[in-house]
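During data preparation, we tokenized the protein backbone, and the record follows.
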Amino acid sequence: MSGNYRNIAALLAALVFLPLAAKAQTVDDVIAKNIEAHGGLAKLKSVNTLRNTAKLSFGPFRATALQENKRPDKVREEVAIQGLAQATDGKTAWQVSPFEGRKDPQLMTAEDAKSLIVDSDIDGPLVDYKAKGHKAELMGHDSVEGTDCFKVKLSMKNGDVRYYYLDTDSYLELKLETQSTVRGTLQENESYFGDYEQVDGIYFPFAIEQAQKGSSQRQKLTVEKVEINVPIDDSRFTMPVLKPQALAPAAAPSK
């Protein structure tokens, strides 16, 4: 083949593959579009406090669940049953675990508090992931209940691994897989997201289902209300200081 024909052939090949090249996206492209789909970086950064109120159901169990966030790194999560709660003020993580026979607040270990610390990031791990010490990879495409998704792997600074499944049309999360090691045991969980609604210019999922990976029994959260930039006192996140019980008066000596 002469030089001219080789040039023509190369040009035709470039034209054929140009649409494919134009569609190729990096992991940063996909994450940027996910952030934009939620409302944009500036809008997300304008959120200083966030309160989510939801109905929690698991089999016959029903309860109200509440999550409150406040910058920087504060979160409180509670379920309206026997005072069940956990929180961190960004320095100390604590919980009230009535089902373990503990009605007083107790300090949480670093391992037990891992998921709570992740939840304290009001923007979510994908926003500014590099500055937070995480590593992201685009793993290609995968399907979630018949919907084509980008699959993003996030290797987190704390050792956890997350797989985000982002709708290729909306770029919003449809599914999240998490892998976390707690006390030497690998825990794998799945979350499914739907019914996105806009609140003050930001899109939130109002239907969330969670389960251990492979389980058909899912815990369901139906969000009833999302409140942005409402007043939340710092004391909501601080571990309560227990007051010493007053000593009972000594019994009078018998006569």
